[in-house]
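Why do we care about 3D structure at all? Because function follows from shape, and shape follows, mostly, from sequence. That is the central idea of this module. The next example makes it concrete: a single protein chain, its amino acid sequence, and then its structure expressed as tokens.
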Amino acid sequence: MSKLSGIGGRLYRGESAIDFIGKRRRWYALSALFILLSIAALALQGLHLGIEFKGGSSFTVTKVNASISDARTAIASTGVSGEVIVQNIGTDKVRVQTGALDTVQNNAVQDALASKFLVSAESIDTQIIGPSWGKEITRKALYGLFGFLICVMLYLAMAFEPKMSIAAIVAVLHDVFITVGIYALVGFDVTPATVIGFLTILGYSLYDTVVVFDKIRENTRTITASSKITYSQATNLAVNQTLIRSINTSLIALLPVGSILFVGAGLLGAGTLKDLSLALFIGLAVGTYSSVFIAPPVLAQLREREPAMIALAKRVNGRSATPTTFAPTVVAGGQSRGPRNQPKRKGRK
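And the structure:
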């Protein structure tokens, strides 16, 4: 049996434990730090929306060893103002994205790129996206996000309990906010692929959280009748029992996504993959964190305020404070022997 399996076995049986619930203030403080960094990134830099959301023009030139500097020189010669994004796609393509252009400016950019890279104007892949279409895409993305959250809350409320759905939604919002903040800090463009990545990480985060919650429900099904452990202690045991599984599934999910991000987008230059892969990579890591360090502590706090759980905690604490009773010693032959009663002395006459 491997060392990791041995640790997992001890955690599952309760022989070893990490105090996730008792030290929740530490995890909350760490999450608050990341949330503040996300707020700062969004306030200072903001999200770089792709042309699919804000509208604009895109020109893709197919030319071996096409350089970004040549493309910028060609755009500068046309006098087009505003933000211009130039990036390589693989080794034989360069893509130029500009703001909204009229017909004259659009033709000027196309001719300048064709002249600079010695290709025909007809071979340049040109896409013009109006701002109204971008607003429609934004509206549909928000509808998809809110619809997803509502469906998740209803399912969790029916499958588990309302407080579990609240804790799960808190963890999901935590994941999305931090992921968006890191996305703004890195400066990648927000494209429809990014939205798909966000929705994907929401599903993965909930998947891991639901597994932990299912174990919590199993451990707390008859907790008020036993009076042996509190709800927080039972929740902490469930998190420890599912910890190794969460680590294994997260690593298996992060490896292929990391390959897409660092090898596909980084080394091979597949720019179309970086938007999706970055959102997935950050979201998977943050989702694993929230399913262990955020959702269970929030659930425990919500449940510990219930009158039944308050009474249970008092009973458990009362039992732990009760002095230990005398345990009879075992002598040879298996017979137990209690305390010896000394004969009373008779007083002298």
